[in-house]
């Protein structure tokens, strides 16, 4: 702990006493602990500049300790206030004196720490009045008050043992719990004094213990959606899904709650490259990064990616409709031959109507530069479009789907064979089209968006 000179303490205290700011701001301004500042202020107000002098460890007599406790209880002072008043080095030692006196009287104050009296007592001794008048002069009311006090103390220590806490080490929450359970039988003021709790501290702890997590239902819903989609959703999609379920919630709240629940979506991107250099014919870039379409079958994008399982490879070739992000056709194969691309095209052409003449955008992979590829497209009036060489952003929509597929499906699972992976890809694409919501589609899945637009 950093030590401060008397001049440094005086400078900080005078800054506070000038009224320019509160405890925390003054402490932050001078780089000191706010609790230390409060202790300095109390000492300065009680003893002036002399109270800020460095204090050496002292051995206090039992009579001095008793005088401190009497003054504290008579004037209802805090530990910090009475420490400043009597120029005591550490205020927390006064709490130890009070506990020892309540357990063992004046004799306990004369014992040094570690002498054995601090251990948990099987039969705690009720606290003794600081001033004991002659028994014959005491009235019936005095005796009843003392009896009530003794019963309250016995009940308090008994409850503390039941809760498994030691009288000297109980936290504020444990003390508040004991007071809550006993306040129906004993006066609150006496219980708080016995527990050493401020009234404000007690009511704060009571509020905390009785409060209900207002986000409990929302947390359950978030976990359910996260598990339903196998960890593929981040906080934005979960927010959209929660709103669809009828919860009005801000995305920042969902993000914070997911952090508390330790729910996090993982994203990794890995792509297949099929460029073999200058061969075949290159088509112009008709798409020009305009990844929006006003109607279905207006703009398509395609590419090929690979997966590795047990030293073997599986290739996927899909076509994505930029109108709603739906995968309208796909084929998988163990080798990246043109037959895979040709079968994918035939599947996609089944969705075309007589008036549809879409643009099919791809990179400059060798499959798309073959004469047969251009011939197949010309037969169905489909215009080929290709990205510029070495520029993956021209086909960002397709690359984004591959990244999503691998981060939400491939990297989250283990596969024993290519057949298992192939079946999983088919299931995921069905999920991607029919169930997985997209924020840009107003929280609808691609198929839901296309169906609603058709009805409208």
TrEMBL record:
Residues 292-454 form the Integrase catalytic domain. GO terms for biological process: DNA integration; DNA transposition. It comes from the Bacteria. GO terms for molecular function: sequence-specific DNA binding; transposase activity. InterPro entries: Homeodomain-like_sf (IPR009057), HTH-like_dom (IPR025948), InsJ-like_HTH (IPR055247), Integrase_cat-core (IPR001584), RNaseH-like_sf (IPR012337), RNaseH_sf (IPR036397), Transpos_IS3 (IPR048020), Transposase_8 (IPR002514). Residues 108-135 are annotated as: Disordered. PANTHER family: TRANSPOSASE INSF FOR INSERTION SEQUENCE IS3B-RELATED, TRANSPOSASE INSO FOR INSERTION SEQUENCE ELEMENT IS911B-RELATED. Belongs to the transposase 8 family. This is IS3 family transposase. The lineage of its organism: Bacteria, Pseudomonadati, Pseudomonadota, Gammaproteobacteria, Pseudomonadales.
